[in-house]
Amino acid sequence: MKNHVAAVFASALVLAAPAFAQDDTEVELQLPQKTAPGAAGDASGARKAITPEARKAAIKAEEERKKAEAAAKKKAEEEEKARLAAEAEAKRQADAEAKAKADAAEKERQAAERLKKAEDEKKRLAEEAVKQKAEEKRLAEEKKKLDEAEKKRLAEEEKKQAAEQKKLAEEKRQADELAKRQAAVAEREAAIAQQRAELEAKKKALEEAKAKLEADKASRAADAKTAAEAAQQEAAGNAAKAADEKKLKAMEKELALQKAKQEAEEKRIAKETEARRVAEEKRAAAQQAKADAEAKKAAAEEAKRAAAEEKRLAAEEKKRSEAVAKMSAEAKRLDAEAKRVEEEARKLAGEPVRKPLKPGEVPPAPAPARVAEAAKPVATLRPATTRDEAMADPRFVSGEVTEVAQLKVAELASGYPYYGIDSNGCSTTGKTYVTGTLLKAFDTMPAGTRVVLRLDQPGQAKAGAQLAFNGLKRAGKGKDGTFVYCGKGAATPVR
Question: Which fold has domain 383-493?
Answer without folding.
Answer: OB fold (Dihydrolipoamide Acetyltransferase, E2P) (2.40.50)
